[in-house]
Inverse folding.
């Protein structure tokens, strides 16, 4: 997986989606000042794009435990 | 060869000898009730319904017969190459001088002992509560790291990777390869479980093996492996053999899958398609929420603007203008009235004036006489001696006249 464009943190899909969900919940909850709502919205959009990117580029990573370490594993095909 | 024998050598007919051998064999109780194991070859089932085959192993072979009534009870599909255990007795077929085994029961090799051991272990571990349903842990819905313990070369690994790659390519697989059959399998599987937990910390572990005979799957009935499955930090999905195969590891696992493929599916309850649609849903909600907030604010702003307009100076100005207009109209009306009055008044005065107009008496037949030259009004006859030229002014026109005589008033 290449690093995400915008939110530079190396978020997992699950974490990014949970954050997106929290933003949706926050916006659905109490009323917020517009600038705050827009900031939340923009962050939410960034997260959504990040998640979509992860889904699009996802490629199963297979590693093998050899000794006490995980190393790349090449399936014999 | 030329030695003289001390005792006379027995001389038997073939029949006698064969009969003797038969009695020897058939009188040995150990040969009359036994299990013998080997691999089937030269299997044949002629029209008679009896079975004929040879059991062999690396060192020897044994002719076998199974009579029709016993053969009819066999459920196992017999064929060359199959390893079996047969129960029966040794006998001799005199016509061709052959000892052979008369089988009355056939079962897959080791099945009886294995089954007994399976039941013993199952009862033991069950009593310890290791298979207690309350012990089973929930599985992660979206595992990030999926541990796999299986043979590095088997079809099971290929199948599982295929399923996970198709369903949830977001995930990462940590493989701990281990032999899945044979004596070295149980300790290797236990070590793989422990190491995978310790060094990869997967969210879920798939313990899997493709189909095989009961002996092939036996490693998954190992007591130590069962205990390692129970002790695993990550929940374990066990997918060993086929739908019909049950192993003790299956009972100990947090979830039993009928096959390795099914195990991989159960480990990935949400696929990338589910994630995509959930994501799309959140994105839509996000858009809707902002739009709603903006329209709410727009509405609020709109009503504020309306209220603001109520207090606008322009409005005040309008009201004042209107007042002014009203006043102006009022003033105009007053003025017009006044003018009308003045007009009437003037008319009256004009009439009055007219009545005072000296000329107006002329209309009543009077005349004004002036000197023609000087225009001086003649009041007295003495002003106009005879021959004076005078001008008589009438209501309509004038007359130029000459005085003929004058007669001043005597008494004046």
């Amino acid at each position: 997986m290449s690093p995400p464009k915008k939110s530079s943190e190396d978020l997992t899909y699950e974490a990014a989606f949970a954050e997106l969900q929290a933003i949706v919940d926050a916006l659905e909850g109490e009323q917020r000042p517009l600038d705050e709502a827009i900031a939340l919205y923009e962050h939410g959009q960034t997260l959504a794009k990040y998640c979509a990117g992860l889904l699009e580029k996802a490629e199963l990573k297979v590693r093998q435990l050899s000794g006490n370490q995980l190393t790349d594993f090449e399936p014999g095909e | 060869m030329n030695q003289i024998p001390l005792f006379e050598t027995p001389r038997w007919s073939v029949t006698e000898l064969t009969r003797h051998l038969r009695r020897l064999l058939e009188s040995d109780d150990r040969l009359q009730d036994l299990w013998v194991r080997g691999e089937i070859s030269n299997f044949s089932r002629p029209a008679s319904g009896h079975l004929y085959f040879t059991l062999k192993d690396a060192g020897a072979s044994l002719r076998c017969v199974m009579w029709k009534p016993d053969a009819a009870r066999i459920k196992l599909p017999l064929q060359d190459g199959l390893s079996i255990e047969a129960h029966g007795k040794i006998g001799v077929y005199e016509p061709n001088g052959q000892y052979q085994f008369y089988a009355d029961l056939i079962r897959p090799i080791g099945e009886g002992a294995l089954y007994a051991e399976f039941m013993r272990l199952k009862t033991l571990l069950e009593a310890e509560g290791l298979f207690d349903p309350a012990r089973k842990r929930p599985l992660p819905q979206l595992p990030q790291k999926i541990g796999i313990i299986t043979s590095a070369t088997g079809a099971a690994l290929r199948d599982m990777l295929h399923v996970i790659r198709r369903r949830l390519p977001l995930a990462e697989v940590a493989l701990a390869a281990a032999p899945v059959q044979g004596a070295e399998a149980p300790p290797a599987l236990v070590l793989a479980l422990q190491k995978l937990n310790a060094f990869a910390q997967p969210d879920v572990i798939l313990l899997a093996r493709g189909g095989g005979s009961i002996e092939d799957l036996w490693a998954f009935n190992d007591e130590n492996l069962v205990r390692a499955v129970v002790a695993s930090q990550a929940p374990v999905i066990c997918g060993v053999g086929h739908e019909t195969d049950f192993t003790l590891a299956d009972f100990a696992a947090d979830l039993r899958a009928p096959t390795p493929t099914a195990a991989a599916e159960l480990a990935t309850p949400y696929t990338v398609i589910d994630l995509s649609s959930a994501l799309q849903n959140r994105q839509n909600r996000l858009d809707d929420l902002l739009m709603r907030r903006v329209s709410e604010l727009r509405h609020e702003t709109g009503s504020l603007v309306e209220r603001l307009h109520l207090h606008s100076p322009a409005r005040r100005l309008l009201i004042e203008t209107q007042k002014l207009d009203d006043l102006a109209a009022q003033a105009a009306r007053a003025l017009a009235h006044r003018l009308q009055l003045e007009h009437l008044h003037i008319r009256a005065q004009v009439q009055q004036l007219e009545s005072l107009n000296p000329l107006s008496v002329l209309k009543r037949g009077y005349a004004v006489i002036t000197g023609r030259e000087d225009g001086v009004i003649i009041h007295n006859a003495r002003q106009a001696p005879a021959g004076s030229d005078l001008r008589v002014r009438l209501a309509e026109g004038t007359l130029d006249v000459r005085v003929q005589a004058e007669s001043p008033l005597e008494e004046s």
Q: What stands out?
A: The beta strands of chain A are 61-66, 69-72. Residues 62 and 77 of chain A are 14 Å apart (CA to CA). Chain A is about 50% helix and 15% strand.
